[in-house]
Structure formats: C-alpha cells, structure tokens
Amino acid sequence: MARVLLINPVVREEDDPRHIPYGISQLAALADQAGHLVQILDANAWRPDDGDLKAVMQADNWDVVGVGGITTTYGYTKKIMQYAKQYSPRSLRVLGGGILTSIPQDMMRLISEVDLGVVGEGFVTFPEILEKIALDDLDFSKTLGVIYRDRTGNNCLTPPRPLIPNLDVLPYPAWDMLPMDIYLRNSALIYSEEAFSAKKRMDVNGSFGCPFICRFCFHLGLAGDLQYQDPNNPAADVVFTYNRENRVHSPKYIVQMVKHMRDKYGTDFVIFFDENLLAMNAATHNTWLPEICRLWIEAGLQPQCVRDGVPHDPEHCHGVHWGGTSHAAHANPEILRLMHGAGCSQLVYGYESFSKRVLKNVGKGSTPETNKRSLRVTMEAGIRPIPNQIMGFPDDWFDSLIDCVEAWEEMGIQVKPFFATPYPGSEWFNKYKDRILAQYDGSLDAFLTDLGDATKITAVICENFNAVELLGLRELMVARDIKRIREYQTVWEAQHGQPQFGDVRWEGAKRRLV
User: Mind spelling out the 3-state secondary structure of 190-206?
Assistant: First the structure.
C-alpha cells in the first residue's frame, strides 16, 4: 500500500477553475481501487499559495507525489516538483500527461527533480508503478511506457505501453476527492443559453482520438499516434505520426455515467471533452452518437424543454443538456437533429480558416464551403454553432485573412481568432523547432514557460508576419476593416516583395498553384 499525493496544477491563472480534472481523478480512482491511500490536491481549484503547497508536501510521509497536465502548466509543474524534492524528499516524484509525453527526454532534462515519467496512456502504467513502490521495488527498467533515470543519471526510455482496447473497464473519476463545490459554482459558460444558465455543469470524456491530421494539433499518445524513434534504444525520443487508433466508450457506459452524475450531483449540463464528436461518430460508421442519443432519452436525461418543444426555462427545466466539439465536414442534418432531440445545445467548430490554401496546408480535411454549410445546418437543427478560428499559420497572408473576414460577413458571425501556437507534440513544433527556439535565445525552458492558451502571442511560425503584425491585423479583422488591411498590404509588399510559402506562387495580385 502506497501513500499517494496527486496534484492538479493551475491551468489558467487568469480565469476561474471551470473544468473538473478528468484524467487525474480517474487515475486516483484506479489507485484507490488497488488499495492505495490517495489524496488529490486540486491546485487549479484551490489556487493555494506557496506556503500551502509546502505544507501539503509535509502533511504526510508520501511515497509518491504525482503531477499530470498539459504543456501550458509547465511553470507551475516545475515549481511543484521543486517543492516536492525539498519538502517531501523521500517521495518518488512522478510526472505524466501531455506535458511529459510530448517531449519526455527534454522534460526530464528541464525538470531535474522528476524521478519517473509516464509516457503515453497511464491507466495501466500508473497502477503498476504504485504496486512496485508498495513492494519497495524501484527498478522500472522492465515497466513499459516510462522514462526514468539510471544510476548514472542518464534518461532511459522503456518500450511503449500498448493502449487499452476497451475504455469501459475504466472507473468513473474520483469526484469525491475533488472540491466539487468550486467547479459547480463556476458552471456557467457563454456558449449557449442552456450552458450559461447551468447551475451544476460537469464534464465527461467519451472517446480518445480523431482521424484527422491537423498539423497544429497534438494527441499525445492517446490515439495511436505515439511512436518511438528506436524502441530498443533507451536514449531515443518519441515521435508523433499519422497513425490513428480511435477508441470510444460504449454509449451505455456514457449514459450510465451521466445518469449517475445527475442522481448524485444534480448535474444539469455536460460538456464532452472529446476532441471531435462528429468525427468519432464517423469512425464508428455513424452508430455511436445515434445510440447515445437513444439511450439518453430512454434514461430520462432528455431536457424537458426539448421534449415539450418549449423555450428553455432554467428554473423549471429538468434533464441534462450537453455540448461538445465537432468537425465541419461531418455535419449533416440527420445526426444534428438527433443530437438536438437528446439535448445537445451547442457544438464548437474548429473552422481555423476560410482560405482554401491554408486549410489544405493545415490538413484539416475541410474547405471554406463545408465550414459555411456546417454553420447553417447546425443552426437549422436547433444547435448553436460556436465558430473557432486561428490565424498566424505558416502560409497566412493578406489574402487568407481577407478571405476570413469576407466569410464572416457572408455568414453573419463574429470571430476573434486564436494565434497559431506550435505546442510540443504537434507536427509544426518539430518542423519549426529551430525557428521557435531562436525567438527565445535558444531556450526551450523559456518557450515552455511562455506558453499560454493561444489567446496571446508566443512563438510565431508564420512565414510572412511577425508578432506585432499579427496582433494588429487581428484587430483589423475583428473590426472588419478590409480597407486598412489592404493599405498595409501595399506597405508590406513595398518592404518585402513576394510572400514566402510552400505551394503557391504570386504574380502581382494573381494567385496560381504551382
């Protein structure tokens, strides 16, 4: 039996804690099932000061201090590990999640306090680690899917851990170990009327994977994309490929979990964390979402306002509304109507751009036409589409930005684009790594510390615009000021001449494919 402290790092310091830490609480449930003594310090919910962090490290004789998260938590995670070494010196310090999986060799070098890293999926690996610790066995050379330090201090990457084939064997997250009151009072989200009026929103994860190859995106070992440069070389690193292994929870598992959430916590709205609901439905030959919708209604989770065809009234509506993410190319009226009938009120669409050239280079699998059509058919189905865009792609130029503004005008939508950010684990991080590090005086640590949620400029990978230009051009785009965008294009061309990017040649104002 091991004494385990799991810490959920602060995700967005500038925002309230809104999303329940699904993965780490599921690992806590697995450890608890195995008979270990587990506690979660949800730093994202509590926002403890440094004194509180130190006190927690000293509160027990922890055998394990474990942290998991995404790359944007790098700075906070580094601090946690430093405190753990100082104030809980006997504990084994374990790091997992996307922050470690994306660049395991680099992360072990950058955070020297980490003893052991979990690479890829941890559902089998983490319980094995705890079992070895309980037996006082710290030899991890035969443990699949980890990176550890040998006696000489060298990093050793063990062979990869296979993904579990059946997600339904996983327990529900250990919600009782979390400060649920904090998350529930931050339930409202400005995505739809139903989400904004939610009083007890919770989150679920119905699937892992996505069949598309978006070059700015990362999957981090949960979708069959994680490969090793050399499985037989412990000094080698990981690579991310176009391989995909898309896995879903059964509709029965999902609906039973949501029913449990409603019965225990009074849940009235659910956000699906899934990377792409409609794409995953397509991966199951269009059977997954229809069955979820059927069972949702059968279980009595269909919202009353939808059932009765009346406007939503949060004071009297019972049932569970829901929303998630989608893909424009898979939006079709039939499935959208089914989803709305079961209570789906919103879908976030990653449109990214309305430029044919940019969308082709991104690898999104969509076109300006499918983007426009998806918004129309989603609204017609009674679901609110949330348009999401990015600017600063490698081949963005004035024409692609104007394409976006003109599309917004045509569709009648307002968008404030995010900035293209080359997160570790994405194809573009590897492709532009030298350019990224050059912007931070060669320091990967500085880049990771600067990473945010793409609302601010970090490393620029656009071949034609710098950070100042991207910030200014975004303001002009939001203001629909095509006139001034074109005026700056004249200035830019006088200074730089022809734009630089892959498969398009420019001759004056005319474009033609090479």
Answer: ECEHHHHCCCCEEEECC
